[in-house]
Amino acid sequence: MYVVIVGCSAEGYHLSKGLLASGYEVVVIDKNEARCHLLYNELGSIMVHGDGTDQNILEAAGAARSDMLIATTRTDQTNLIACQTAKQIFNVPRTASIVVDTKNEPLFHMLGVDVVVNSTHLAVTQLEAKVQGKPLVHLMNLRASNTELVNIAIPEDAAVIGKRLSDIQMPDTSFVSLIVKKDNPTIANPNSVIEAHDEIIAITTTEEEHLLYETLTGV
Questions:
Q1: What pLDDT, in 10s, does the model give residues 78-109?
Q2: 23 Rama class: left (phi>0) / alpha (psi -120 to 50) / beta
């Protein structure tokens, strides 16, 4: 498998090393000459010095025969243009990109980037998971705009304890999909009864997530 990586950021650097170690054929494009030299000295001649949005540079990097292009620069505009050029000019089968500004994620999906990784969301999710008690953890952004998959832990004094889901007034665009009881996940249904220390896996919107949290954890 041949992969073109646009951007020798920290993510691009570690990704290229990992893919090479796994036996992939990799080339990395970056405008910064110093970074190109550093990676060349460490990993060999996998570097192309230039602008990853430039058709001539992409052609020189072998984009036309690549199986995937991954954009990892710290600029969303550059990442999006690189992915679109790869798809539209070189017919690259799959593209992937980091998104730095969370507001731009829906645009990447809308314009056909196959895999979109929100770097801010990943960092927040990892930090949330380390907070003791983890009251509300973002599990992932779903493809629909402003839609989240969240994990909410039910405290011992929550008013919903002992109630069935059908008896709880949920926010309009939120619904519970799974209930984890003592590490045993079960599919939620209207007759599911909420107990202390349950973990509720729910789909909600960014606008309603705090309302959902208050509904399930409030006293």
A1: 999 999 999 999 999 999 998 888 788 888 98
A2: left
